[in-house]
Amino acid sequence: MHKFFIYTLILYLTGSGWLCSNCCAEAAPLQIAVVGPFSGAYSAYGSQLLAGAMQAAIDINNQGGINNVEIEIMPLDDQCDPDMAIARADEIIRSNKYHAVIGHVCSSASLATAKVYAQQNILVVSPTATNPKLTQNHINTFFRISGNDLQQSVTAAEFIAKKLGSKRIAVLHDNELYSKELADLVAEHLIHLETTPAMYQTVARGTRNFTNLIKKMANLDVDAIYFAGLYPEVAALANALNTLQMQIPLISADAIALEQFAAELNSTESANNVMLTFATDPNQLVSSRNLLQAMQENNFSTTGYALYAYASVQVIANAMQNTNKLEGKDLANWLHHHPVDTVLGKKSWDTNGDITDHEFKMYAWQTDKDKLVLKKLLPN
User: Fold this and answer.
1) Statement to judge: residues 156 and 113 lie in one domain
2) ∠ CA(205), CA(206), CA(208), 5° rounding?
3) pLDDT digits (tens, 9 = 90+) for 209-251
4) Domain co-membership, 218 together with 186
5) Residue 17 pLDDT more than 60?
6) Can you tell me the distance from the alpha carbon of 142 to that of 106, in angstroms, rounded to the nearest whole number?
7) What percent of the chain is predicted at pLDDT more than 90?
8) Is residue 355 part of a domain?
9) Closest CA to 257 of 127, 79, 370
């Protein structure tokens, strides 16, 4: 699905002429780069962002564009690799045709490129990157739509220690920036809650055989697992736990809040004990229903951070519309002083570029009419 989906979107953007059918002859479309993994093992993350950004472009252009100039979404593939991310950033800068950047999807790629964009005065809006360091670099032109892992880790640790009452917890990560730092923060908060992890271990990306690790956890009497990983590895662990009939709660993070995670599971039973931290799920917002229906009619993914990408386009468009400028510094200064109405509600930012009203909730993959859907866990 992923390669075909992305190829179709690129043709839709660049070949069909739809986005420019109403453009003024004097004004070329305003191009916004969406940078993320559009190929490779983690292309599902890029697909959902491109879907949201595409739908936002369609809707904004249908309403007259930005000051009567249409916008055009341009995908660039970095495979969540920092070196490729830098190459894409250099490409964006050299081309001198992009007016803003949405991305990068992965925190490691975002950290690798943040200062590069800042030096060139390019506005960057990230729908997904949650690493706290991104907004600790004193970069005026970087903004986040999601929360950060300082918030996410507290939610996870308190749920594990207080709600589940777990005492012997295994903390796992894949040794990449996003997952390791998130796992470290969760472990730190667990210790603060007087629940020192019984296991702390690295699981390499690409791992699919978890039998020996599960046996090790059983020998340690582990009663909860926190795995800060990406969806293929977390799904593989969930499958292994189900196969071995190990009813251990598996808690993960926002990286598994997409339909591809459910697709990786061998059966719905594999999801029985899987929970995760996630921000506001747009699929559960009444205000998003019409938009979600329109995206589904276009065969666009609506899970995970798709609507966060939609909101990112809204943020950029509002700044351009209200300033009538394209320079990153001008757009950033406006955003630092003005809230923006988005599909996720009204958003505003602090001086670092973090949103001011964000919190994470606990969700679970649950069966609904023989299909796995993401549902918020209700507090007692």
Assistant:
1) no
2) 120
3) 999 999 999 999 999 999 999 999 999 999 999 999 999 999 9
4) yes
5) no
6) 15
7) 80
8) no
9) 127
**353 in a domain, yes or no?**
no
Closest by CA position to 29, among listed 100, 123, 90, 92? 100
Is position 246 within any domain? Answer: yes
CATH code of the domain covering residue 194:
3.40.50.2300
Q: What is the pLDDT of residues 107-158, one digit of tens each?
A: 999 999 999 999 999 999 999 999 999 999 889 999 999 999 999 999 999 9
Helix (H, G, I), strand (E, B) or coil at 77: strand
CB 301 within 8 A of CB 259: yes
* Count of alpha carbons within 13 angstroms of residue 240, beta-carbon side: 17
Residue with tokens 């920036």: 177
Length of the chain: 380
Number of neighbours of residue 347 by Cβ within 10 angstroms: 22
Give all strands (DSSP E) within 60-116, no chain letters.
Answer: 71-77, 98-103
Q: Are residues 40 and 160 in the same domain?
A: no
From the list 352, 358, 355, the residue with the least C-alpha distance to 137 is: 352
List, in order, residues 6 or more apart from 4 with CB less than 8 Å away: none
Between vectors from CA 195 to CA 192 and to CA 198, what angle results, nearest 5°? 130
pLDDT top residue among 215 and 357: 215
Q: CA-to-CA distance for 138 and 149, rounded, in angstroms?
A: 18
Q: Report pLDDT for 26.
A: 57
Say how far apart CA 193 and CA 157 lie, in whole Å. 8
Q: Is the dihedral of CA 102, 104, 106, 108 positive or negative?
A: negative
Specify whether the backbone of 7 is left (phi greater than 0), alpha (psi in -120 to 50) or beta: alpha
Structure tokens at 88: 């894409």
